[in-house]
Write a structure and sequence with these properties.
Blueprint: H1 9-22, H2 27-34, H3 38-46, H4 54-64, H5 79-91
Helix pairs in contact: 1-3, 2-3
């Protein structure tokens, strides 16, 4: 059985940033609540930090009221894949 994460860290960072902004938290406030630096939060949100431990991602999701799920890859594209394909077409 193979599990594939359908989002890359850049896409996860965008979702985390949106969740933080919806909660009206600064990067500094979010980082302080989790024992992370503002620079780490920024790096995760912008995708500059490509390797993030699962515990950090899970803590961020829990704090921001987001859900992290894993499942079998579906035969049809995910919303993220459709957005990426649309973005790629626009860049050409």
């Amino acid at each position: 059985m193979h599990y594939i994460l359908c989002m890359d860290m850049g896409e996860i960072g965008v979702v985390l940033r949106e969740g933080r902004k919806q909660r009206k938290l600064s990067q500094e406030q979010l980082g302080q609540s989790l024992g992370m630096s503002r620079a780490t939060i920024s790096g995760i949100e912008t995708g500059k930090i490509r390797e993030v431990g699962m515990r950090k991602v899970m803590a961020l999701c829990a704090t921001l009221g987001l859900e992290l799920s894993v499942g079998l890859r579906r035969a049809y594209p995910t919303l993220q894949e459709l957005r990426q394909a649309s973005h790629d077409r626009k860049r050409r």
